Amino acid sequence: MKANEVLNHHHLKRTSCREGIIDVVMSSDEALSEAEIRDRLQGCYDRTTFYRSFKTLEENKIIHKIIVDNNLVKYAFDSSALSSLGHAHFHCVECNSVRCLNTVALEKASLPQDYEYAQAEILIRGTCNKCKKQHSKP
Amino acid sequence: MKANEVLNHHHLKRTSCREGIIDVVMSSDEALSEAEIRDRLQGCYDRTTFYRSFKTLEENKIIHKIIVDNNLVKYAFDSSALSSLGHAHFHCVECNSVRCLNTVALEKASLPQDYEYAQAEILIRGTCNKCKKQHSKP
DNA sequence: GTTCTTGCAAAATATTTGCAAGACG
DNA sequence: CGTCTTGCAAATATTTTGCAAGAAC
User: pLDDT (tens digit, 9 = 90+) per residue, B53-83?
Assistant: First the structure.
């Protein structure tokens, strides 16, 4: 599905900023920060516009926001299969890359009495394959 | 265990700000924001001092920080039983309260090939018992 | 043509840093 | 007394808002 189709599908106006963001996050295998997305779009847009676009795209569940730390916020394309249960992400503490995981199962049970479950977000920290490989080098 | 004992145990200087923070988070059944902690200490300390104290206490695993959203950061006493595996928290999307959970099990498996697991953070969103009760009122 | 979006400037907020004065041990 | 901590001021950084010009449909 192309960026403009995604926008049409959600009854959002096709603007080049939105299309650009969608193209970038769709084609990336890892989550990207605002700065990274802006770089890949050759800095074409104002930060304000980015924030507003991110917000709109997030509200429409086209992308989702991953807050790894207060100064590490990333965005990823929202493959809606995940979004019903919640999301799981892997954060490499060495290279700070963030990837969506779709293979993590949360045992849904055991909330306190009378609490109502809606959605879970799981952030797994560790070391990614690339950084682990670095370690084994001489 | 009292606040000053906690500090001694970690070889940290006993200062009233640190003791105050520890007292407040230890005696609270939910996680508290900087503003809430400051209020309970009658606004005695500078925000800078809070940030520095939080950092020190977090580095020593005396408290932990829960980033619910970019503008919703809370702190809770770190009961170390949880900290080995990671933490699970419940965020009520209605009243924005945050509580530590100790009864959530994550199926530890299924990372991509060659990834190394270190720790997980789970944030469960939903409705807390108090807010649910509100709904059933007339 | 009407409505939504953008860019700019500016405000609000959160967080960090330098430095001198003060508290801890 | 030497070292770590505090408070103030100021610097950074992030995110939000108002408004007029411009684009989408």
Answer: 999 999 999 999 999 988 899 999 998 665 5
Stated as kind and residue range, the H or E segment containing A91 is strand A86-92
Measuring from the CA of residue B18 to each C1', which nucleotide is nearest? D5
- DSSP of B52-70: HHHHHHHHTTSEEEEEEET
Enclosing domain of residue B116: 3-136
Cβ–Cβ under 8 Å, residues A98 and A30: yes
Task: Measure, in angstroms, how far nucleotide C11 C1' is from residue B66 CA.
Answer: 27
Nucleotides of C under 7 A from a protein CB: 4-10, 13-18, 23-25
Phi first, then psi: what are they for B25, rounded to 5°?
-70, -30
pLDDT at B90 over 60: yes
> Which parts of chain A register pLDDT below 70?
80-85, 103-109, 138
Number of domains in chain B: 1
DSSP bridge pairs for B67: B73
Here the CATH number for the domain that contains residue B110 is: 1.10.10.10
Q: Pairing relation of β-strands B86-92 and B116-127?
A: parallel
Say if B29 is an interface residue toward chain A (CB within 8 Å): no
**Could you tell me the pTM of the whole model?**
0.91
Name A119's bridge partners.
B125
